[in-house]
């Protein structure tokens, strides 16, 4: 049977599975298209406002994107993917599993495997997520007005609860890469009301079952007092909060340093404290990039991007990328393997960027090359200095 005939037969199976209510899901893999970020696509049936649809989860290297389509449009999209970009497609029904595969010569084969136990079909739109931080019996969540005494999350705190879990889920794989000798010096710079700080301590002690000492650094004394009271009431003996600024706080032999949404150069202060403290892992979510933006505006460099940077919104985005790009280079200079990736909060806030540095003893650092890159970047954008560069005495 020809490739075209096999595909047509398979596509008819997909189409028939919807009205007969046997469609469970489709998995598309071995992507060979032009999108360098895309890895896999997963499709399932959902119902939104009583209308059946096909929900596509586009699994990228750094994040997932979900898009919902009508049944007809969804089937068309699957058929296009099978015919062009994905070389393996697995269709799961309540009765069988069907695998369509392109070999290296482009020849298509179709294999089927009967399923003895029928898979139940669910059209639930909201898939239940497994949270690393569960609300039951958590005194700190009650004190922070996230949940009640029975562990039920308040309706107006759902977004904050999801946000806490999202942060912990992001930190989880990073923390697991560190040596298993305890987290005896964790610092949360600019801890605020302590939502993440409490959850992080809870995760380290009660999920990872590791010895932990966590300190939240916060300038506002009233929040420090409140958080220490809650920590004591929760019997979190290894968690404390201290009053002070990021700039003034000193620590050595840090396992993990976090700074979420420290404004403008406060992020640089936090990164530098991590570098000085020989932190094994540095995680920052920068906020505001005024220092570099002002210098780009002042420098008025003439280059290929000036047609973009004359617009405020583009200048703002460019300043963000340049600021965080130089931060990553400086981390690399000091022996950190860096990652910069985007995440989207469950709290419906704008997109955020995480800059991550993992200390690696084995990494060979081309320091002169890094300094030259920073120098060229500053010259290109008309920047006099980067605040972190100044702190680290690299000018």
TrEMBL record:
Pfam families xref list: Methyltransf_32
The organism's place on the tree of life at top rank: Bacteria
Keyword Transferase: yes
Keywords of this entry: Methyltransferase, Transferase
An MF annotation (GO) of this entry: methyltransferase activity
Any one annotated GO CC term: cytoplasm
Domain Methyltransferase, first and last residues per copy: 159-295
GO BP annotations listed: methylation
PANTHER family: METHYLTRANSFERASE DOMAIN-CONTAINING PROTEIN (PTHR13369:SF3), PTHR13369
Protein name: SAM-dependent methyltransferase
Species this protein is from: Pedobacter cryoconitis
